[in-house]
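Readers outside the structure-tokenisation community will struggle with the description of the input data as it stands. For illustration, here is how one protein appears when written out as sequence plus structure tokens:
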Amino acid sequence: MRVSSSNADESRQPKANSGWVSRERALVVTLALATALAFYVCYRLAYPFLPALAWALALAVVAHPFHEWIERRLRHPNLAAGLAVIVVAVVLIAPAVFVVRHMAEEAATRAETIKTEIDKGTWRARIEGDSRIASVVKFVERQVNLKREIQELSSKVGDRLSSLVSGSIWALAQLFITLFALFFFFRDRRAVLRALRSLVPLSDSETDEVFARVSDTVYATVYGTLTVAMVQGALGGLMFWWLGLPGPVLWGTVMAIVATVPVLGAFIVWLPAAGYFALSGSWGKAVILTAWGTIVIGLIDNLLYPVLVGNKLRLHTLPIFIALVGGIALFGTSGLILGPLALVLTLALVDVWRRRTAGGQTAETVQLHRHENPKRSKQSERI
């Protein structure tokens, strides 16, 4: 009887263990779902502020050497971070206010001029005075109602730019959040990096590599893409002003914007302007603008970009193009940072998994490696 009783207890033990495992698995699944839901809610809460946070991160990476220089001299984290934020704000806001104000004035003036000339019919008299331009316009008019399209376009552009210039509370709020987040990125940089290291399931070397690639991407985007684009826009705007074209600040800004997108470039702005000069008979101006755009503006990308970026961003043009355009479509102007950042982060994680698969590493091996190598790389602390 004792034997049979012990056998019965043993037969019941697996069932008890099975029930415990089922409850444990249910708890794990519940915890995972709750964590995923919490992350989603936090993402939705932070989504409106992603542009501000993205630019704050970019500024923190780019201005880190300056902040570190101030911090070494003041030896007061709050004061050093506050002073660095003030300097960054002055450097960014002053030129932005100047450019936006001039863009608004020029856009409003040009829109009003176009509407006035269309209403009075003076634009047709000018066109009919040149047979070459008149033939092109007549062909276009046969395809579309040119007068109506120009009126609608000028009205929309004028209204939207006027409302943009008048300023939006949301834009000011985003600027405040950017500077507010930048302060904490400066002051708590090391604590943030330590927290990220404790959360990511990567070894120290893998974490260092991911941090380094993220930092390099921000450097390449800000120092490379944006700086080169601004230089190209400034050079194009100066040439537009020297040749007497209307709206040099406006068109220079447009050139800077399109120059950030691979494959497009500033030529889609200055090339039609050169064509306009050629059609109107100003062959000298057409040649000057074409030479300036091809030799000076065009070569800036090939000469200045490698100097600023070097080999920090070694990616093919196609994925970068998709990342930039997709990022802008999804996040707006902050997509210039978030698009390439998402691409590089994804590729870095894919490389990690590829090496782990090839080397037969497991999660336990990685955690053991983390405990055996507690040293932190200083390279990743550039963020």
